[in-house]
Design a protein that fits this description.
By secondary structure, the chain is of the alpha/beta class. It is 51% helix and 12% strand. The N and C termini lie close together (6 Å).
């Protein structure tokens, strides 16, 4: 019997299966910023590496996204000669992202409301040390008994140890838990290796795996989670 559900945060609870590289690139297209996807992916990686030492535990979601976009634009400006004028719409780009997340999170709250009375819930996230702050801001924190932020614990997915921390906090065995996430490599494979049941949200990811044998169930939206769980429990 399944007793606990572990959720990824970024790309799962906030964007319902869309990796943040894809979400940000969507924003660049929306604002007609002339950058190729390959060049943007370089900027995304640069930003993620840079902001790890910049974002503080009290940064809210809007501050976090603004910081991410700021350093993406910095990279594109310096390496690919992006027109400097695009830095003037940083606040508008951030607001676009923020609205999108808040819309998706409405669905997340509805789903978590259905699940919270039946299961122990946890979050396992590769984040920046402020996932606790962000979950509180989005009215999601109240659902979770365990919140594991990679920057806080010093272990990043796909290391199995980060999942074990959550399982221990929830006092459940791997075979009593379900891992739900959008990243096959970071969420599904390592959780499956521990013995968890896995539900992969198949959306717009960073890359496509060669196979999906470690995904016990595949869904297109977090809306499908309650029905999927009913079939396996």
């Amino acid at each position: 019997m399944k007793k606990a559900l572990l959720f990824d945060f970024g790309g799962t609870l906030d964007t319902d299966g869309i990796h943040w590289s894809e979400k940000f690139y969507e924003v660049y297209n929306e604002f007609h910023i002339p950058v190729s996807k390959d060049n943007f992916r370089e900027a995304f990686v640069y930003s993620e590496q840079t902001i790890a030492n910049i974002i503080k535990p009290d940064f809210n979601l809007k501050q976090t996204m603004k910081t991410q976009i700021k350093y993406q634009l910095e990279y594109l400006l310096n390496k690919f000669n992006l027109t400097k004028s695009f830095t003037m719409i940083l606040d508008q780009m951030t607001e676009y992202c923020y609205r999108s997340v808040n819309q998706n999170v409405k669905t997340s709250r509805e789903v978590l409301d259905k699940l919270a009375s039946k299961y122990l819930l946890g979050v396992v996230s590769n984040f920046y040390g402020n996932v606790d702050t962000v979950l509180e801001e989005l009215s999601l924190k109240k659902y979770f008994t365990s919140i594991v932020d990679s920057a806080v614990v010093g272990i990043r997915k796909p290391e199995p140890g980060i999942f074990e921390l959550a399982l221990n906090e929830l006092s459940v065995k791997p075979n009593e838990a379900v891992m739900i996430g959008d990243s096959y490599e970071n969420d599904i494979k390592p959780a499956k290796s521990l013995g968890c049941y896995t539900i992969w949200i198949v959306g717009k990811g960073w890359n496509n795996p060669a196979d999906a044998k470690d995904a016990d169930s595949m869904i297109k939206s977090i809306r499908e989670i309650p029905d999927t769980l009913n079939k396996i429990v």
